[in-house]
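User: Here's a structure from my thesis project, written as structure tokens. My advisor, Dr. K., wants to see whether a designed sequence matches the one we expressed. Can you design one independently, without my sequence as a hint?
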């Protein structure tokens, strides 16, 4: 099925969505890669809050290319997704701490993230790798930027207003299903079957 969602997204709506469904997202997405995840989690552990509210919005694994226009406003040059597996070791902690609605990235995520998505009612959705200009065109405004001087352009928090951002393919749903892991298991099963039936002539 195809869904057109507006942030903040209620958990009840997220529970209607299944792996393989397509999402187009409007509202707020915030970029965060490795260093931003770690800094936000460190603040959380110390009883402090990050400068943005992640609850109910889209969290985008992305290191964008940005520039300022003649008026000094930030504009997005390219915003392709980062490989999400890099964040697998702490994404579950992030989901539990900050309650985003949708994690957006490339390549899928593992069982730790899937478990957290099930428990906290969150989705993971894949954006097509190599479509950085398409993503940039769906970003309508740069609302804020945080930690730019400390973390640098690719790693800091960019807060974007987006319109019909997608298509996003859901690969982890709130029911514990993980399309990426399902495909891996099927590939291994088929591989074993092929090897078993393979006859080598001497």
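Assistant: Designed independently from the structure alone:
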């Amino acid at each position: 099925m195809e869904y057109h969602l507006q942030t903040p997204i209620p958990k009840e709506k997220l529970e209607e969505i299944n792996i393989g469904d397509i999402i187009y997202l409007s509202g707020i997405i915030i970029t965060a890669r490795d260093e931003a995840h770690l800094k936000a989690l460190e603040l959380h552990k110390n009883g402090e809050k990050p400068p943005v509210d992640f609850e109910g919005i889209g969290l985008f694994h992305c290191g964008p290319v940005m520039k300022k226009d003649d008026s000094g406003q930030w504009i997005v040059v390219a915003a392709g997704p980062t490989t999400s597996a890099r964040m697998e070791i702490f994404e579950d902690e992030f989901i539990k701490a900050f309650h985003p609605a949708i994690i957006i990235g490339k390549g899928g995520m593992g069982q730790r993230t899937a478990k957290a998505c099930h428990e906290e009612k969150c989705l993971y959705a894949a954006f097509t790798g190599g479509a950085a200009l398409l993503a940039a065109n769906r970003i309508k405004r740069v609302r804020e930027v945080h930690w730019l001087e400390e973390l640098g352009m690719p790693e800091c928090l960019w807060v974007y207003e987006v319109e019909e951002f997608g298509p996003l393919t859901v690969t982890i749903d709130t029911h514990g299903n993980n399309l990426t892991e399902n495909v891996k298991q099927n590939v291994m099963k088929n591989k074993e079957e092929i090897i078993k039936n393979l006859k080598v002539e001497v």
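When you compare it with your expressed construct, this may help: The chain has one domain: 2-177.
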